[in-house]
Amino acid sequence: MFHHLLEPIAREFSGKRAWLDVSRLWQFRNTVMTPGLRESCRWCVERFKESGVSARMIPYPADGKTRYGTHPPMPLEWEGKSATLSIVKPTKEARRLTSYEEEALALCCRSASTPKGGVTAQVVILKDGTAEEHYKGLNVRGKIVMTERQASAVASLAAKHGAIGIITDTCDRPRMPQYEPPVREVFDGPDAVQWNCLRGTDDTKHLFGFVLSPRIGARLRKLVETGGRPVVVHAEVDARSYKGHSDVVDAVVPGARGDEELWALAHISEPGAYDNASGLAACIEIGRTLEALYRKKILPRPRRTIRFLFSTEVTGFLPYLEQHKKKWPKVLAGLCIDSVGVDMGKIGGEFVVFRSPDHAPSFIEHLTAEITEAVHNMPCDTFGDNNYALWPWRMEDFWGNDAFITDTYFDIPTPQLSCWPYRYYHTSKDLPEYISADNMARTGVMCAAMLYFLANAGPREAMWTAGLTAGKVKERTAVKLNAEVLQLDKSLGKKPSKKALMNAAARLEQCAEYYGLMGCEATAQALRMAPKSVQAERSILAAIKNVSKAADADMHSAIGLLGDLAGKRLPEPPDEAGPPEAEKARRLVPKRDAWRIPEDKLLPAAQRKKLAALRARPDCKGVSFNDFWPWADGRRSIYEIWRRLRYKKEIPLAVMIDFFEIMTRAKVVKMV
Question: What band does 526 get if pLDDT is binned at 50, 70 and 90?
Answer without folding.
Answer: very high
